[in-house]
Design goal:
Blueprint: H1 14-37, H2 41-51, H3 68-71, H4 76-89, H5 113-137, E1 144-148, E2 152-158, H6 159-162, H7 172-186, E3 192-200, H8 214-231, E4 240-246, H9 257-263, E5 265-272
């Protein structure tokens, strides 16, 4: 008679229990490692933004979120508390890249005067070129001459084109000319020191109900050009000067009609900005 085999023991084998314990521990270990190696994306972005432009450090200094596993053995809870504290206070982290140079003196960041001077000269030359093209294009219509020297550009308007004889009021055509020319000048206002509006006449005496003499007439002509520029908001008033010379600033002889015609004029002198040391 065959012997009856004994019934197997109830429950799992002993090695299964040990194996399960090891697997649980390994899983827990890797979950912990993963929690250390990740960081909340929103919080990291807030940290990066708080660093932007602070302490002289470029945003490129911070390339990747730091990995706490390589730094220390702090828990993930301590790491999270640190991030929350930084974000809530809005304080930058004083990180300095070894390749980043932080100026020790604000004076080190100033642009050298010679570079500023080169820029002013270049833009002043561009202004002269634009005015020359405009005046050349209108040469058959406008009675305007342009003269350039080292520090200024002179726009010379024959009074016949701006004013009627013995009158200081601008007509519509004259206003259009001033508007177009000063509009070009205004684009280069940053490299200009000032505009000087100069009224001039010949030496033929006048005595009218409105103007006692040529000197007063020249002042009012320059003044009305200024008023028009301000009315149209073309150029800052603080950078405009008014001068009236009357017959005392001739550019030709007053002994001939041709010379007197040249002396009856209004000049706009464009002064280049000076470079401050």
């Amino acid at each position: 008679m065959k012997r009856k085999k004994p019934d197997p023991p109830e429950g799992a084998a002993d090695w299964i229990v040990s194996y399960g314990d090891v697997m649980s521990l390994l899983l827990t270990f890797f979950v912990m490692l993963f929690s250390f190696s990740t960081i909340d994306a929103v919080k990291w972005q807030q940290i990066v933004e708080s660093l932007r432009g602070r302490m002289g450090v470029s945003i490129n200094t911070v390339q990747q979120p730091f990995n706490p596993i390589k730094k220390d053995k702090d828990s993930s809870q301590n790491k999270s508390n640190l991030i929350d504290s930084i974000v809530e206070r809005g304080n930058p982290i004083p990180l300095v890249n070894s390749d980043t140079e932080i100026p020790s003196d604000p004076e080190d960041t100033k642009i050298p005067p010679e570079e500023i001077g080169n820029t002013i000269d270049e833009d002043f030359g561009k202004l002269y070129g634009e005015l020359m093209r405009l005046i050349t294009y209108k040469s058959g219509i406008w009675d305007v001459d342009i003269i350039r020297n080292e520090e200024s550009i002179i726009l010379r308007f024959g009074n016949k084109i701006l004013f009627e004889s013995g009158i200081a009021d601008l007509d519509t055509e004259a206003a259009d000319i001033i508007y177009e020319i000063v509009g070009v000048i205004a684009e280069y206002e940053s490299v200009l020191d000032k505009l000087v509006i100069e009224g001039n006449t010949d030496n033929i005496p006048i005595n009218t109900a409105r103007y006692r003499d040529n000197f007063e007439l020249s002042i009012y002509r320059a003044l009305n050009v200024f008023y028009f520029i301000q009315q149209e908001d073309l150029f800052p008033a603080k950078k405009i000067e008014i001068k009236g010379y009357g017959e005392n600033n001739p550019i030709a002889s007053n002994d001939t009609e041709e010379g007197r015609a040249l002396n009856r004029r209004t000049d706009i002198v464009i002064m280049k900005a000076e470079v401050k040391e």
